[in-house]
Automatic annotation (TrEMBL):
Keywords: Repeat, Ubl conjugation pathway, WD repeat. Residues 99-137 form the F-box domain. The keyword Nucleotide-binding does not apply. This is F-box domain-containing protein. The keyword Ribosomal protein does not apply. WD repeats lie at residues 248-287, 288-327, 331-370, 371-410, 411-450, 460-490. The lineage of its organism: Eukaryota, Metazoa, Ecdysozoa, Arthropoda, Hexapoda. One of its GO terms (molecular function) is protein dimerization activity. It comes from Anopheles melas.
């Protein structure tokens, strides 16, 4: 198949119609001698025969000629053929009624290449415009990248993508062409805010009457669900920062852990019970009594729940419905309180005050291996894919490869017990009893060449007590503390001026 030199056209910014198909002579034309009459006669005879042959015979004849020529002559022929072999297929396809094929080809380009392509010629620019290719590029990024998806929802331009809602009409190509660089600017600003610690801070004062402290939380775009030291669960509105439902009461001890989905909130307490609540009504629908001491952590997903306790055991539960939850297996092996668990379809991972992390098979619950390295008890961890990140009362954070059990990196910087830790594909965020939240560069931490002193990007100081729990996404951190507050650190909705001014609420940002 004949192939066009697209890179040359796109880089030079010229169309196929502008390319001069003149023969490139490898020697000085002025020195070329006029052909003799004899040569002209013989050449015309050969051409006469050539025109009478079929295509296969013509090709065979030319091959025979080329095989008898020297390298210098081959170079001359190559220079002559090169422009003849080029084809501007993007321009040619619409003339054949194949606009959709041209659009489909260009739709695979990234932003930089698409920008070059629309400058090649008017026909390429027309295909890009009529094919709405900048819109399709934005939609592709929104489908595959959570940062793009979150921006689309928060900035409101998602309503102009995909199939619009009733009453919303799609914009013209120019709108999407101008939207793309604005999105890139927003993304750059968010990443810069994470690096510099620039944020807008919102504070929820929980106003506990008796015991103060917020031990656990989970949030979405509408609400924050928190478990408190005063035995209650409170649900806060993201828009008003006020308690938006009745307070959930029933536990007779501090609420130490919780998780919710679109149907239930499940909580664990120092009263040794696990309780199940209807997320919409707040009604308690089930109480699980198994552990004989405080339930320190729990996780549930896809019909399976894992709980762990101060009683040194791990319980694996089958969840048929909120009211039908049965104990499948009890895992025993830790020699101290099991402080945290995490799991997926392959592994259950647990961490304990006995300084170890243990790995179990999720299907048959069999013990697989122990990860050793922390010098004191382990308070928190997260597991995803092959990576485990753990925090300990030895004040350090460790990164582990779960498959081979090796420690990949040790992060040091907190001055007291590391109580909570979360990570995504870019960063690790940790909270500790020193009241500080630290943001770490995950990709650099996984690179053995990276210097240790470059891994902590920022230390955020706003809490006045121990940090008990945090979660984060691409735009924010939500954290809770012994100081009876929930803080929302917003890295999206903050002005550039805040980078050079003191943070809100009189707090400080320490490098």
């Amino acid at each position: 198949m004949m192939k066009m030199d697209t890179d040359k056209i796109m880089d030079d910014g010229i169309s196929n119609s502008q390319v001069s198909y003149t023969t490139q002579i490898l020697y000085d034309p002025a020195r070329k001698k006029e052909p003799s009459p004899t040569f002209q006669t013989e050449r015309d005879t050969c051409l006469s025969y050539f025109s009478k042959w079929n295509e296969a015979n013509q090709v065979d004849f030319v091959e025979q000629l080329l095989s008898r020529m020297c390298h210098y002559q081959h170079g001359h022929i190559n220079a002559y053929l090169k422009p003849m072999l080029q084809r501007d297929f993007i321009t040619l396809l619409p003339t054949k009624g194949l606009d959709h094929v041209a659009e489909n080809i260009l739709s695979y380009l990234d932003a930089k290449s698409l920008c070059r392509a629309e400058r090649v010629c008017k026909e390429w620019s027309r295909v890009i415009s009529e094919g709405m290719l900048w819109k399709k590029l934005i939609e592709r990024n929104v489908r595959t990248d959570s940062l793009w998806r979150g921006l689309a929802e928060r900035k409101g331009w998602i309503k102009y993508l995909f199939i619009p809602r009733p009453g919303v009409t799609l914009r013209q190509h120019k709108f999407y062409r101008e939207l793309f660089p604005k999105i890139m600017k927003d993304i750059e600003a968010i990443e810069n805010n994470w690096r510099t610690g620039n944020h807008n801070l919102q504070r929820i004062n929980c106003r506990s009457e008796n015991s103060k402290g917020v031990y656990c939380l989970q949030y979405d775009d509408d609400k924050i669900v928190s478990g408190l030291r005063d035995n209650t669960i409170k649900i806060w509105s993201r828009s008003t920062l006020q308690c938006c439902m009745q307070i959930l009461t029933g536990h007779t001890g501090s609420v130490l852990c919780l998780q919710y989905d679109d149907k239930v909130i499940i909580s664990g307490s120092s009263d040794s019970t696990v309780r199940v609540w209807d997320v919409n009504t707040g009604e308690m629908v089930n109480t699980l009594i198994h552990h004989c001491e405080a339930v320190l952590h729990l996780r549930f997903n896809n019909g399976m729940m894992v709980t762990c306790s101060k009683d040194r055991s791990i319980a694996v539960w089958d969840m048929v419905s909120p009211t039908e939850i049965g104990l499948r297996r009890v895992l025993v092996g830790h020699r101290a309180a099991v402080n945290v668990v995490d799991f997926d379809e392959k592994y259950i991972v647990s961490a304990s005050g006995d300084r170890t992390i243990k790995v179990w098979n999720s299907t048959n619950c069999e013990f697989l291996r122990t990860l050793n390295g922390h010098k004191r008890g382990i308070a928190c961890l997260q597991y995803r894919d092959r990576l485990v990140v753990s925090g300990s009362s030895d004040n350090s954070i460790r990164l582990w490869d779960i498959e081979c059990g090796t420690c990949l990196r040790i992060l040091e910087g907190h001055e007291e017990l590391v109580r909570c830790i979360r990570f995504d594909s870019k960063r690790i965020v940790s909270g500790a009893y020193d009241g500080k939240i630290k943001v770490w560069d995950l990709q650099a931490a996984l690179d053995i060449r990276a210097q240790t002193n470059t891994l902590c990007l920022k230390t955020l100081v706003e809490h006045t007590g121990r940090v008990f729990r945090l979660q984060f996404d691409e735009f924010q951190i939500v954290s809770s503390s012994h100081d009876d507050t929930i803080l929302i650190w917003d890295f999206l909705n903050c002005s550039p001026q805040e980078e050079t001014t003191a943070p809100s609420s009189g707090g400080s940002i320490v490098p």
